[in-house]
Write a structure and sequence with these properties.
Elements: E1 5-13, H1 38-51, E2 53-56, E3 62-66, E4 73-76, H2 78-87, H3 89-105, E5 112-115, H4 127-145, E6 152-153, H5 161-169, E7 174-177, E8 182-187, E9 194-195, E10 206-210, E11 216-221, H6 224-232, H7 239-247, E12 257-264, H8 275-288, E13 293-294, H9 297-303, E14 308-312, H10 346-369, H11 375-381, H12 383-387, H13 389-400, H14 407-425, H15 430-433, H16 440-460, H17 465-472, H18 485-493, H19 500-513, E15 520-521, E16 524-536, E17 539-550, E18 556-565, E19 571-577, H20 581-596, H21 600-610, E20 615-616, H22 623-633, H23 635-651, H24 653-661, H25 668-686, H26 693-706, H27 712-732, H28 737-752, H29 760-782, H30 786-802
Helix pairs in contact: 1-3, 2-3, 4-5, 4-11, 7-8, 10-14, 10-16, 10-17, 14-16, 16-18, 17-18, 20-21, 23-25, 25-26, 25-27, 27-28, 27-29, 28-30, 29-30
């Protein structure tokens, strides 16, 4: 392999922030079914698989599991990294570890790039947001990866000169652009420019871009046709095909040449199933056959620094043929929809959000300036608080406050900074990217705007919502049943706003169904100062005094609440600010006396009289918990229905089999009963630690004989969980033959059943065991140790059933 042949594949891994702006957690997204939300789904389909990607041998067996991130160049959006850190720590650790491995592999240069913080289209940002987005992205990267970033990915690769100046201000050395974003080139030292518009730039070299400030930044332009083929033209159907297509970009010109492509990272596994396997094999194929030197951008720049200057095409991007119009006008770029649909809503939406940002900015500067030395510098530094509020908040305030802040002033400062955070989040690019204003991405940016409006009203005492809604009315939906962005805001945002009283109401209702009473709910702390609970039959009365505190703004309120649960989903309650010890004691006494006298109507009257401003019902529960409680309440009815189905099935089993034997169709009621009972018993049989193989096989045979449809997805999930538990048990006791025998039986069953069982986690755990324990036990077996012989035999059986090459 010659040092002139270099190769790099870049993945831009990103998901928009999806958290409810008031709760700081993601609520269930039904469109991501069967997963809770899109972050969870894409992690399962892409981010996790790329951390442990399979490479197959000639017999289609897994012979190696690799961390793709360690072999490619990549960036992750800070907001998805924050989510992964909490919800998928193993994947998060693999992403960080890959950068460490790449530094060892690529001459001290890490493969991870930073990203402008929340995927704002930088040429459309104002000067302050541009600066903060870069600083937040850089600081988030340093916090996670433990080093300053050399490169920074620009959202949608959208760029202009001001954006490049902001990158250089932050110490960024390079960024990656699309070939259509180059305008002209010249050899360094020359004065004559050559036009390269229309993606005619040579993508195999690095370029220096001189800036008006007298400084410069390195730019690398990825190959467009091959990148498009990966993303949209099926190039990932074969790893070898991918490798050869990228290698085809290299020529023999006697200089270092870089073949490189860039796509959304979700291409590898989410958009294209098993795309991560094609990527893993391509890199293995190239490296094993020494066809090119795999590298990252920072290492290539060290070995082949720019010899040519480039001038960029201003205000351009990789996903809009019209520059950056996709994020502010009906330019023609969209993702589908009906032929007559348009995107004229984009302009009014951006105008409304620009107006809101510019309305709150002067008030922020004025009010924050009374408490902070430099409000905008404090906003730039607020990223440290976001990253670790508990450790960094006091230090941040000590550094930026004009003087020691009283508790009320701390709340005011934090509300001001949170308002600015959400004022940037409302410009997340996905809000404009798709074809219709009513999509979940656009609704999400409207929710951020709603939070800005709420905080502005609380801190400044100004009402912005009416004017904002009037501007949103101009952003008309293609769906006549929706109307406009104003309708969406009024329907999906106004009603979802949360304050401390609503948090308390949620907690009060939750206390009916959860005796554990957690001390937190979402981003709020709950401190119960006094509480009573009385029960009688199916009813219960709960009343309490509680302190509710926001962990983000430190705003707090002491409240009194009472709730009467009449059984099932029937309850009534109320909440009010704490009115003092005397009023609280009198209320508690009256409630208890009425309840213990079984005068529930008197309790109801007290609730109506003493809590007139804040009554509540089961609807007070936040979305996810509300679903959970409602499903729990249905369990009694579900059990009764289950018993009825089982009775019908068992009483009519003989005649059912006779009808089937005669080739006659089963009555619908019999079929439903048989379908329920067989699937229920199968799931129960598959969820045990020691599966009854004969019993499960018999039930599957019954289903086939009766032509009963199996709940394949549910049964596969149950068997997956059992196999994962067995793999965990074996990892804890690797030499336990009994566990290994159960594992072998269950793995064999999984292969024999007509189910598509997700074995990804099981294979990962088995592969790690194989790497750590197989060789020593195999050596003992060869030496004649009977237990080791049995272990090696069973371990090989498991590996074969899981599709791994055992060695």
């Amino acid at each position: 392999m010659k040092d002139t042949r270099w190769l790099c594949i870049h993945g831009h891994f990103y998901q928009p922030p999806r958290e409810n702006p008031w709760l700081e957690s993601i609520e269930q997204q039904d469109s991501a079914y069967p997963y809770h939300d899109w972050n969870e789904r894409i992690t399962a389909e892409c981010y996790g698989p790329n951390a442990e990607a399979r490479i197959l041998d000639a017999r289609d067996r897994i012979f190696r599991i690799v961390n793709n991130y360690a072999a490619i160049s990549y960036n992750f959006g800070p907001t998805i990294l924050a989510w992964l850190q909490e919800h998928s720590p193993d994947t998060y650790a693999s992403i960080l570890d890959a950068d460490r491995i790449s530094r060892e592999r690529f001459g001290g240069h890490g493969s991870a790039l930073a990203q402008a913080y929340n995927h704002m289209i930088m040429p459309l940002a104002n000067e302050r947001d541009l600066k903060t987005q870069v600083r937040w992205g850089k600081r988030d990267f340093e916090h996670r990866f433990g080093r300053p970033p050399d490169g920074m990915w620009l959202p949608e690769t959208a760029v202009d000169t001001a954006t490049l100046e902001a990158l250089v201000d932050a110490g960024i050395v390079y960024t990656v652009l699309a070939p259509n974003q180059a305008d002209a080139i010249r050899r360094i030292g020359s004065t004559e420019w050559t036009d390269v518009r229309g993606a005619r730039i040579d993508t195999t070299r690095a370029y220096r871009c001189p800036l008006p400030s007298g400084r410069s930044i390195s730019l690398l332009f990825y190959d467009g046709p091959v990148s498009r083929a990966v993303a949209f033209e099926g190039l990932l159907k074969s790893g070898e095909l991918l490798a050869n297509r990228v290698l085809g970009l290299l020529r023999d010109e006697g200089r270092p040449m870089l073949a490189h492509i860039a796509t959304d990272g979700e291409t590898y596994g989410h958009h294209h199933r098993h795309g991560e396997m094609a990527l893993a094999y391509a890199m293995h194929y190239i490296e094993h056959n020494e066809l090119a030197r795999i590298t990252n951008y920072a290492e290539f720049l060290e070995h082949a620094p720019p010899e040519i200057e480039v001038r960029i095409a201003e205000a351009t991007s990789w996903s809009c043929a019209h520059g950056v119009e996709r994020w502010r006008s009906d330019c023609g770029c969209h993702t589908g929809g009906e032929p007559e649909w348009n995107q004229r809503w984009r302009g009014p939406l951006r105008d409304a959000l620009d107006w809101l940002r510019d309305e709150v900015a002067p008030a922020f500067e004025r009010e924050a300036g009374l408490l902070l030395k430099d409000p905008w510098a404090a906003r730039d530094a607020y990223i440290d608080v976001i990253l670790d509020r508990e450790s960094n908040l006091d230090t941040f305030l000590a550094e930026h406050a004009r003087t020691h802040l009283a508790a009320a002033d701390r709340v005011r400062v934090l509300k001001l900074l949170e308002m600015q955070r959400h004022a940037m989040f409302m410009f997340t690019s996905c809000g404009w990217f798709f074809n219709e204003v009513s999509g979940i991405e656009t609704v999400q940016v409207l929710r951020y705007a709603g939070r800005v409006i709420q905080l502005a009203e609380e801190v400044f005492g100004i009402a912005l919502e009416q004017e904002f809604c009037a501007r949103l009315a101009l952003a008309e939906s293609n769906d006549t049943t929706v109307g406009s962005a104003r309708t969406l805001y009024e329907r999906d945002v106004m009603g979802s706003k949360v304050d401390l009283m609503m948090v308390a109401a949620h907690y009060a209702v939750d206390s009916v169904f959860d005796g554990g009473l957690p001390s937190t709910t979402h981003s709020y702390d709950i401190d119960i100062e006094d509480r009573l609970r009385r029960t009688s039959g199916d009813t219960q009365l709960i009343a309490a005094r509680a302190r509710i505190t926001s962990r983000l703004t430190e705003e707090w309120e002491i409240v009194t609440f009472a709730v009467l649960h009449l059984g099932g989903h029937n309850l009534a309650g109320g909440i009010r600010p704490f009115g003092g010890d005397t009023a609280y004691s009198d209320l508690m006494k009256q409630l208890v006396e009425s309840y213990e006298a079984t005068d529930l109507s008197a309790v109801m009257r007290l609730l109506a009289t003493d809590f007139p401003a804040y009554p509540f019902s089961l609807k007070a529960l936040f979305t996810d918990r509300q679903r959970e409680v409602l499903y729990r309440l249905l369990q009694s009815s579900v059990r009764k229905a289950e018993a009825a189905y089982r009775r019908v099935y068992q009483e009519n089993a003989p005649v059912t089999r006779f009808l089937v034997a005669q080739g006659l169709p089963l009555p619908r009621a019999f079929m439903l009963a048989a379908e329920f009972v067989i699937n229920h018993d199968l799931r129960a049989g598959l969820e045990t630690d020691d599966i009854d193989i004969a019993g499960v096989t018999s039930l599957v045979d019954d289903a086939a004989a009766l032509k009963v449809p199996l709940d394949r997805e549910g049964l596969a999930f149950a068997l997956k969980r059992s196999l994962e538990q067995l793999a965990d048990s074996l990892a804890e006791r690797p030499d336990d033959l009994e566990t290994l025998e159960s594992f072998a039986r269950s793995a064999t069953l999984a292969r024999s059943l007509p189910l598509s069982v997700d074995l990804w986690k099981v294979q990962n755990k088995y592969y790690k065991l194989m790497r750590t324990h197989y060789a020593s036990n195999d050596a003992r077996a060869r030496a004649g140790a009977a237990d080791a012989e049995r272990w090696a035999e069973l371990f090989t059986v498991v590996g074969n059933q899981l599709g791994l090459a055992v060695s």
